[in-house]
Amino acid sequence: MTCTKTLCQECATQWDGIWHCAACLAVKRGAKVERSPLFSWIAVVLITAAMLFGGARLMVWTAAVLAGLFS
Amino acid sequence: MTAAPWAGLLVATTLPYRFLQALFFDQLVEVRTEAAQYGNLLGGTANMIVAAIVIALWGRAVYARACRLAMGRGATPGREVWRVPAAALVSFFLTSSVVLLVGYLSVFTCLGLWVAAMFAGLAIGTMELNERVSVLEPFRLIGRYAKPMILLGMAFVFFCGLFVALVNLAAAFGLGVWALSAIGGFDVPHWELLFTPGNRRFVLMLVAGAFVAIEPFWVAAHVVFVRKAGAQERGDDLRAWFEELRRTA
Predict the structure, then answer these.
(1) Which of B98, B99, B100, B245 would you mutate first to test chain A, the one with the most A CBs within 10 A?
(2) Which residue, A34, B25, B180, B203, has fewest beta-carbon neighbours within 10 Å?
(3) What ipTM is given for this predicted complex?
(4) Contacts of B39 in chain A (CB under 8 A)
(5) Cα separation of B64 and B221, whole Å?
(6) How far lies B70's CA from each of A16, B73, B75, in Å?
(7) Residues A70, A43: one domain?
(8) Do both A48 and A60 map to the same domain?
(9) Which tens digits make up the pLDDT trace of B15-68?
(10) A20 - beta bridge partners?
């Protein structure tokens, strides 16, 4: 519960796995959904793609070095 | 236990990743010192692994959501499990790709791998707390919930669990071959040669299988850890405890 009030099971409603009272649900429904800026999306996607690409290269490099060490 | 049906999805999405990893190690052992000359072969498998990681991470995210919903309700969640918030999923991909890089960089150190394992656990545990897409916020969240001793303890427990799973899988294969030898019509003598510790590929597949077997428990443990830590911060655990005391009094 967002307001931390203690309610009985009948007075609480579950939304997305979390129990809310009627007042908290009304606030949630009326709240403006804040969207993440486009720049953040682009930055996160690009960084993730770069990390995954780098990860594949690093995997091969690490494997080659390890194989050389244990020969 | 209530999220158990969703563990099937996690296993199905993780299998290609783990088996490709086993294939990569197999190829590495095959080429040994000449690994540097087989860059294209190893690079091709590495690219496939990275593609499989994306699917495995998605499966992990769905299962983590199922665990969180099951924990809140005490019942098996339904179709809403599929609706992983995009911001949480993208943040999880970001933190996991960093774990991947850190893991491979620190493979030469003993401590680095443990740190990477703890970081990966927190990445899945805190995934759903990311409500907005940000480059730094997922790492701040991970830092907030980082309790090194507890996480190290959990990593150690799952490290031991890996060996238990490995032994159980090996025993299950042995039992299967022994049971099938009684039926006949199969080339069981050949199987007995294949399913032995002397067969490198069999051992690698067992290790991959052990990782797949413990992953649902590992994900669930970290989701519960982060939720409990959050409840402690807000005082929800105390409130629930007082309620319980009042009920029993």
Answers:
(1) B100
(2) A34
(3) 0.81
(4) 60, 64
(5) 10
(6) 11, 5, 5
(7) yes
(8) yes
(9) 999 999 999 999 988 887 787 788 888 889 999 999 999 999 999 999 999 998
(10) A13
pTM for this prediction: 0.82
Number of domains in chain B: 1
Angular region, B156: left φ>0, alpha ψ -120 to 50, beta rest: alpha
Contact B119, B219 (CB under 8 A): no
Identify whether residues A41 and A26 lie together within a single domain. no
Q: Encode pLDDT of A3-12 as tens digits.
A: 777 777 677 7
Q: Do residue A26 and residue A42 come from a single domain?
A: no
Q: Are A43 and A69 contained in the same domain?
A: yes
The tally of CA atoms less than 13 A away on the side-chain side of residue B24 is: 26
Least confident range from B104-108, B127-131, B144-148: namely B104-108
Its domain, for residue B182, covers 3-234
In a domain, B243, yes or no: no
- State residue B124's pLDDT score: 93
Question: What are the φ and ψ backbone dihedral angles of A18, each rounded to 5 degrees?
Answer: -115, 135
Residue type, A49: A
Q: Which among B72, B98, B135 has CB closest to A40?
A: B135
- Domain around A44: 35-71
How many domains is chain A partitioned into structurally? 2
Query: B42 in contact with A at a CB cutoff of 8 Å?
Result: yes
Asked if A43 and B80 come within 8 Å (Cβ–Cβ), the reply is: no
> Chain B partners of A19 at a C-beta cutoff of 8 Å?
72
Nearest-angstrom CA–CA distance, A49 and B90: 11
Torsions phi, psi of A14, nearest 5?
A: -90, 130
Look at A48 and B93 and tell me if their CB atoms are within 8 Å: yes
- In angstroms, the separation between the Cα of residue A36 and the nearest Cα of chain B is 5
What CA–CA distance (Å, rounded) separates B93 from B86? 11
Q: Is residue A47 predicted with pLDDT exceeding 70? A: yes
